[in-house]
Specification:
Length: 309
């Protein structure tokens, strides 16, 4: 059973970075510029407060500030997905209800975990997601990523989708993503409304071939990733493959060398933000790594490198 009141979300839904000042405070004006840049990149939606937003380095008060700022500033121009993960079911439910009230189109959640070993079984996870769905009343995307250390089997994910109507979307980032997406879609059928991938879209072509209908990369080059998705979904696989081949070296460099710091490095280069600071204990990019990133990016002429100039 799924909620068919709204059309399925498909396309490119990047993670918004959280800009900080050099002193480490939230740069709220910079955050507004980040959102405007992303919309000008042609994104289909924006995800906030995710791991690539450095959500694990934000206070609760800062989360509240960013939730209100982002939803107010986007103002319905594109859907906003809000990450509301927490080990505590009560806190996750409170976050979900708060995000829905602020205008979130969807929640994204990892399974409950804390550290490497504190997890719960499938019954606990099912109840966790069910209670958040009841509290929020908006669709939920389950993030299946190695970071949690939790095994989310295909039968369990299908069970969530068929028994909790609002659990409709799945962001698969595990090794062998295409195979898991293919199995999930085959087993879940219409209950799998939104099969997505992530991890900077580093396996995007294989995942689209497996049936993915959306991707959640960083905000580095969503304007260049979008033709891959739209081309593939429209049946023009050759064009999609050619577009993907041209950007894959940059995506690989981002994924393997930079992580979440890549987008900030590009955004300061393009005048979007004033500082690419990350919060300790994360470390700034080495100058040589930054130079390598920009060397790959410049010939592609992404919007991020010229948006603020």
């Amino acid at each position: 059973m799924t909620d068919t009141a709204s059309p399925a979300l498909t396309g490119v839904y990047p993670i918004a970075p959280t800009p900080f000042t050099e002193a480490g405070a939230l740069d709220l004006e910079g955050q507004r510029r980040v959102l405007d840049c992303m919309i000008d990149q042609g994104v289909d939606g924006i995800c906030i407060l995710a791991n690539y937003s450095e959500q694990f380095l934000l206070t609760d008060d800062e989360r509240e500030t960013l939730l209100d700022l982002c939803t107010d500033h986007v103002a319905g121009r594109v859907p906003v997905i809000v990450t509301t993960s927490h080990f505590s079911t009560d806190i996750a439910a409170e976050r979900g209800a708060r995000a829905a009230k602020a205008g979130a189109a969807m929640l994204m959640m990892m399974p409950p975990y804390h550290g490497a070993l504190l997890k719960t079984g499938e019954t606990g996870m099912f109840e966790h997601f069910s209670r958040v769905a009841d509290a929020a009343g908006v669709p939920i995307m389950i993030q299946d990523a190695p970071l949690s250390g939790v095994d989310l089997s295909v039968p369990f994910l299908v069970g969530l989708a068929t028994e909790i109507p609002l659990v409709q979307y799945f962001k698969i980032e595990m090794p062998g993503t295409a195979g898991k997406l293919r199995a999930l879609i085959a087993a879940g059928g219409e209950a799998i409304v939104g099969p997505f991938d992530g991890e900077e879209s580093i396996t995007l072509m294989a995942d689209l071939d497996a049936g993915a209908t959306g991707t959640m990369p960083s905000a580095l080059i969503p304007d260049l990733i979008k033709p891959v998705v739209t081309g593939h979904l429209s049946g023009n696989r050759d064009a999609a493959a050619a577009a993907y081949a041209s950007i894959l070296p940059l995506i690989n460099y981002e994924n393997r060398q930079c992580g979440l710091r890549a987008t900030k490095a590009a955004m300061i280069e393009g005048g979007v933000i004033k500082s690419d600071a990350v919060r300790h204990p994360l470390e700034a990019l080495h100058p040589d790594t930054r130079a390598g990133l920009l060397e790959l990016a410049r010939p592609l002429d992404p919007i991020v490198l010229r948006w603020g100039k």
